[in-house]
Structures are given as C-alpha cells and as structure tokens.
Amino acid sequence: MAVIRITLPYNHNENDLARAVANRFGRGTPYRILRRSLDARQRNIVVEYHLTTDISDPADRITDGIRKQNMRLDRHFRNTPRPRPIVVGSGPAGLFCAYWLSIHGFRPLLLEQGPPLAIRLRDIARFIKTGALDPFSNICFGAGGAGTYSDGKLTTRIRSPFIPFIAATLVRHGAPEEIRYLSEPHLGSNGIRRCIARFLATLETQGVDIRYSSRICDFESRRDGMTLRVSRACAGASAASNEEEISISGATLFLACGHSARETYRLLRKRGVRMEAKEFAVGIRIEHPARAVDEMRYGADYRSRYPGIEHARYRFAQTWKDEGRAVYTFCMCPGGHVVNAASGDDGVVTNGMSNARRAGRFSNAAVVVNVSHYDLEHGGYEGPDGGCTLQCEVEERCRAAVNHPGSAFVVPAQKLEDFLEGRRSSSIDRSSCLNPIAPASLHEHLPSFVTDAIRRGMVLFDRKMPGFATHPEAKVFGPETRTSSPYRVVRHPVHLVSVSHPDLYPMGEGAGYAGGIVSSAVDGIRCAQAFIERFIESERFDSATVRHRSSDEPVD
Ligand SMILES: Cc1cc2nc3c(=O)[nH]c(=O)nc-3n(C[C@H](O)[C@H](O)[C@H](O)COP(=O)(O)OP(=O)(O)OC[C@H]3O[C@@H](n4cnc5c(N)ncnc54)[C@H](O)[C@@H]3O)c2cc1C
User: Structural domains in the chain?
Assistant: First the structure.
C-alpha cells in the first residue's frame, strides 16, 4: 500500500487538503486518511497527513475473518450446544471480549460488581460533592469499568490488527469518524460514556447477559465445569445471605477485573492462581494553567498566530540507564480536571480526565517514576503482593496526611515550587481538581527514590519546555499510584490461559497485559479469539487440557 505524506499549514481547510491530494494523486482519485497529526515542534505549526489511495477499510478484513471462522464453528458445534463463557468485569477488556464472543455465536454471561451507568454516575457525583465513597461504584468500578470515567484518550503504543476494528466499533456507537486516523484520538469522558452506553445496549441485543452488582467472590473449577459464588455487591452488603451460587458446566472464565480490584486479586491468590509482582510506576499529578502550557509550547503570541488552536500537549521522559531509573509524564489531559480515583475509603489516588472539548482552564499530567523489582525487594516489598502493598501504603499515607476522622475525602496538594524545595505549602490556589483539596507535604509521603527522581527529572523537563518546573501557579496532587497493575497473572504465551488454571483467561490491565483503553480492548479480543481457536483447532489440541463440553445454560 503506497502511503504519501502531505504537510499543510495549521489553519488549512478541507479544500486545501482536496487540492493537495488532487495535485499528488490526480483529480477525483478517491483516498483515505491514515493519520493526521499536529506538528508543533517548529515555530510554524503544521498539520501532517498520511494518505493512501487504497480505500478498503482494514476493519472489513477482520469482518471477513469472522464470517469464515463462524462457518467452522458452526461445523464444530453441529451436534452440541455452545458452552457459555463467563466474563468478569465490564471495562474495555471485558466488553470487547464479550462482544467478540457474541459475534461468534456465544452467549456470554457478563458479571460486573458495580451498578449500571446511570446509578454509577449519580454515585460519582455524590462522591465528588460529599466525599462519600461507594466501594463498588466509583471512578474505577461500575458499568464500563475505569474506561467510563477516563479521559477517553484512545492512544496506544501497541500494534494490533484489532485496533481498526475497535475504532470502527466505537464509531458505530457514536464516536466521531476522525478517531480512526488522528494520531492522538480523544473522545473525552462525556464522549466515551455515550459510546459505552450504546455499546452495552448492543451487547444485550447480541445475547450477552449482563448482570450488574454481581461481584464474583469465589470460584471453583472442576472437571465438568465451573462454580461461582456471586455476591449481590452493594455498599456495606457482602454477607453470605447476599451471595448466590452459579454453576455452569463446561464454562470458561474470562477475568478482566482492572488494576484496582484488590479483593479479586486476593481471591485469585486464595484459589492458587499463579501470579507475580509486576513493575509499575508511582508519582504525582502536575497541573498548570492551560494558557501557560500553550504559551510554553506554541509561543507567547500563539493566540494571534493560531487563533482557536487546541490546548497544547507535552510528553517528557528521562531514563538513567546506569541506575535503572526512569521518570516520565503520562496521561496528559489538556484543559482537563484532576480527580480522586480512589476505590476504597482507606487511600487517596489521583488521576486525570477531560471532556471532549477540553475547554477547562488547567492542563494536567502524571509525572511518574518506575518501581522496579529491585526497588520492591530492597524496600522489603517481597513476593507477588509486594507492589500492591507499596501502592496501598503510599495511598494510605497520603489519605491520612490530610483527612481526619469525620472530614471530607480531600486530595493532598502542594505548590510545585514547595514540592521541589521540600516545604509544606501553607495554602493552595484554585485548581481543576473536582474533589476538595488541602495543602500537604507530598514529598514526604512518596518513596524517597520517587521524590528524588521527580526532582531531577523536572530540571531536565524545564530545559525542554522552559517554565514547566518554575511556573508560579504550577501545583502537584497525589499520589498517582495506579498507572498500571502491580500484578501479572501468569498465562500461556500462545493460548493465553492461566498457567495454573486452564479454564481461566486473565486479561486486560488488571492481569498485567494492557495499559489503557485500547490495549485492554485488544487484549479482551485476543483472549476471546484464543478461546475460539481452541475449538477450531480442537482435533490437534490435547483434549486433556481443554474441558469444553456441552450445555449452555446456568444450572443453579
Ligand atoms: C480517571 C481515569 C482516566 C483514565 N484515562 C485514560 C485515557 O484517557 N486513556 C486510556 O487509554 N486509559 C485511561 N485510563 C485507564 C483505563 O481506563 C484503563 O486502562 C482501562 O479501563 C482498563 O480496562 P480493563 O477492562 O482492563 O479494566 P477496568 O476498566 O478497570 O474494568 C474492570 C471492571 O471489573 C470490575 N470487577 C473487578 N472485580 C470484579 C469482581 N470480582 N466481580 C465482578 N466485577 C469485578 C470492576 O468493577 C470494573 O468495572 C484512565 C483511568 C482512570 C481511572
């Protein structure tokens, strides 16, 4: 496929693009945009297009594959009903796994511990207003998973043939067409919520049985199938009387519990599922006035040179190879808000989000430092739970620093200048944080190697974008601890099943195989596809390790 590059001034219009395309390809030649990106590295900001005359849709190639596979599956299940898979978690991994299974003729049961969307949004609004947190219905948990209340950035560093299919699916459910080619597509929290609401409705019409407020609190896999204990989870109610037992013969469990499901990790450990500690990152969330970032990036006269230009983005990284240390910015939200993404009452966690228009007065990003296996072992955080223990300690310390019994659930904040100088801030100006904030000494509550690397990194980032570390209104919030999962649930590299439990597919961010909306969705599809291939290849597959049998209905 021939790809050409066209660069146009920042303020070009559609006619300019059409004219440039006609000059290169000839008048009237149909073309497709592969990628559109803003290049703000030079004084004159330009927009770069990558275009092709191959107008076939890459998502269609996947659809052809689905048709062929369905014919083979129909042959396989000619004499037996299809088994019913169980998907746990309705985040991007769980949703796309269930969708992929359903378009191949399976009717999965999808269990989500949190409530449906409307109730979840009400609970989050109450949390922001009063600080009353529902442990099953918050920014991390509930219909749509963490993705629902995310920033809705659809960038990913992975490559996968499933990405065009995921983008096309989101477009069919209300996302703008441009997410298929923008270099940094962004739906915003409101945009992704709209898509998820429609996607959930599609899943139900495809035969997915979605059960909310249904937390899997135990499971047992036997030769003839799987028995689950499901708690009708809601705040303050986890007594056995609220539990229900579901047995499904021949069932396979797809677990997409996300990176904050500490109870679910405990369950996996209890059931002997092989897990290990995974490296992750810890740090703070930094915020500047959006205009200040725009000026640093586009120049002081940017408003007259580029009227109406979107808020600027930045991305910095510094690695000290000899120390095995890295500091980097992550999940930047121009015109966004800082949020308290806690999923339990005992700790505070920051994250960032924005709406589609990114019209807020502040821009924020995480500044995080890698936590290596060496850091964990040398800090006394050994074993598979080491990373999670460190995360909990930091979150609890930060919570205790500013929250006292009976007080609202506030987020610790500090002027950047004070963080760098090691001083407590006496007061904090207005910020974008949706939750109440209070001045704190964040530098004291993070591991010292984290504070130290952030301080050193800031000096270097400021050289790349002068003013970044010295702007008088810059502030930091913390801690930013849930950058990715502190665990990896070990799975077979090809078949993707747990190495200890052959009827369990650990997937998505929580299992340690993704980081973000798109990569989690890809992983959900990969696991569903690996499961389907087990049937298609069943003649060659060792039947002793695969226990797919008949019956597709739950038996109580
Ligand atoms: C505020 C915020 C902003 C973000 N912004 C972005 C962004 O802009 N771009 C991006 O790519 N990523 C972003 N992320 C990260 C992104 O949301 C996650 O990477 C992604 O949602 C992970 O998908 P997942 O399916 O693996 O898990 P999750 O989305 O975390 O979903 C897991 C689900 O499983 C449920 N669950 C857990 N245990 C059980 C159980 N025992 N029984 C039943 N259900 C259970 C949970 O309630 C949850 O709903 C953001 C995250 C947050 C919190």
Answer: 4-52 (3.30.70.2700), 59-276+486-536 (3.50.50.60), 279-480 (no CATH)
